[in-house]
Amino acid sequence: FSHLAWVQTDRKSGGLGDLNYPLVSDVTKSISKSYGVLIPDQGIALRGLFIIDKEGVIQHSTINNLGIGRSVDETKRTLQALQYVQENPDEVCPAGWKPGEKSMKPD
């Protein structure tokens, strides 16, 4: 139910809005265990976010304690930076980079 509420809530109100991909539920806790976010004695998972590319490689991960939420805007910015460096492999995005801002060339 929380996934449904999240996608039915506008981004300006803290939700995701319309998505072009599915959200995953982990009823058996196998995914959270595999990614190291499961708290076994409590049967719950820390707040984990993993961005995985088409080759199955984790490009970004964030794990927060239970009381700390995640920022949809920061996740979107991170995705945009990942897409930018994939399209521009000789460049890097500095901290806080946003589309349209200057990137950097590593030494």
UniProtKB/TrEMBL annotation:
Domain Peroxiredoxin C-terminal intervals: 81-107
Location of the Alkyl hydroperoxide reductase subunit C/ Thiol specific antioxidant domain: 2-60
Catalysed conversion reaction: a hydroperoxide + [thioredoxin]-dithiol = an alcohol + [thioredoxin]-disulfide + H2O
Function of the protein: Thiol-specific peroxidase that catalyzes the reduction of hydrogen peroxide and organic hydroperoxides to water and alcohols, respectively. Plays a role in cell protection against oxidative stress by detoxifying peroxides. May be an antioxidant enzyme particularly in the developing shoot and photosynthesizing leaf.
Calcium in keyword set: no
SUPFAM superfamilies, sorted: Thioredoxin-like (SSF52833)
EC number: 1.11.1.24
Keywords tagged on the record: Oxidoreductase
UniProt-recorded name of the protein: thioredoxin-dependent peroxiredoxin
GO process terms (BP): cell redox homeostasis; cellular response to stress; hydrogen peroxide catabolic process; response to oxidative stress
Similarity-based family: Belongs to the peroxiredoxin family. AhpC/Prx1 subfamily.
Keyword Cytoplasm: no
Pfam families named among the record's database cross-references: 1-cysPrx_C, AhpC-TSA
Gene source species: Trifolium medium
GO MF term list: thioredoxin peroxidase activity
The organism's place on the tree of life at top rank: Eukaryota
